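Reminder to self: tokens first, then the designed residues, so the page reads top to bottom the way the pipeline ran.
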């Protein structure tokens, strides 16, 4: 299978047949990772290994397995026509389920395209959210749906964002690739995400201080996402550092 075909086949799964229904599940969480040109091979490894490390954390494991199960999926995204599933939906009902999901995510190879079409050149945030919505459309039936979008730059390919129905969008902004006062109005990338990306009940943005800080930031983020939504936490987004 060539480099062009593999991502295309994975992308096709985003709009495949409906997934399992009737599951007793409190949260369907789609983890979305930026693999555009600004993310090099080392940074990609830190992102995937950091997320796997966070998923293996004892507190995260306890939070994921408390109360009703959560369902997890993960995908990577770059330009507006470039999204691919890294791990399809898994209902997390045991420590083994969570460990296997972490292993599969850590081992997912970055799509590379071919010499005539380099997969991952530009940054299409709005298209990434639309792909997440399609993925969530065939998730196990859960009480809530969330996209957890991680990236290191603003959108430069297609719409900056799309509004989703009944989906919460959180963001993990990796600091370092944007000025501290982006457009003179918001505070760096985390501020850009707050303005353009966050939506839904309790939505929030969190900042990682570079890719070396990704595991810590993802751990904090997962603990918050796996926690029950507090009554009253239904307003606009907020930034967490």
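Designed residues (241 positions):
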């Amino acid at each position: 299978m060539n480099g062009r075909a593999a991502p295309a086949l994975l992308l096709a799964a985003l709009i495949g047949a409906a997934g399992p229904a009737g599951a007793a599940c409190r949260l369907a969480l789609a983890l979305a990772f930026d693999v555009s040109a600004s993310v090099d091979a080392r940074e990609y490894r830190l992102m995937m290994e950091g997320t796997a490390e966070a998923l293996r954390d004892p507190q995260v494991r306890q939070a994921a397995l408390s109360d009703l199960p959560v369902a997890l999926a993960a995908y990577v995204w770059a330009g507006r026509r470039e999204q691919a599933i890294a791990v399809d939906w898994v209902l997390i009902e045991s420590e083994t389920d969570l460990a296997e999901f972490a292993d599969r995510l850590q081992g997912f190879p970055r799509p590379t395209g071919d010499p005539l079409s380099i997969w991952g050149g530009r940054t299409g945030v709005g298209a990434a959210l639309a792909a997440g919505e399609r993925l969530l459309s065939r998730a196990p039936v859960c009480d809530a749906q969330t996209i957890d979008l991680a990236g290191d730059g603003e959108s430069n390919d297609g719409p900056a964002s799309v509004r989703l129905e009944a989906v919460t969008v959180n963001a993990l902004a990796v600091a370092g690739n944007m000025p501290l006062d982006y457009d003179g109005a918001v505070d760096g990338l985390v501020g850009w995400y707050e303005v353009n990306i966050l939506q839904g009940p309790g939505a929030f943005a969190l900042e990682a201080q570079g890719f070396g800080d990704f595991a810590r930031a993802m751990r904090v983020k997962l603990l918050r996402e796996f926690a029950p939504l507090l009554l009253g936490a239904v307003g606009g987004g907020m930034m967490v550092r």
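The chain has seven helices and eleven strands.
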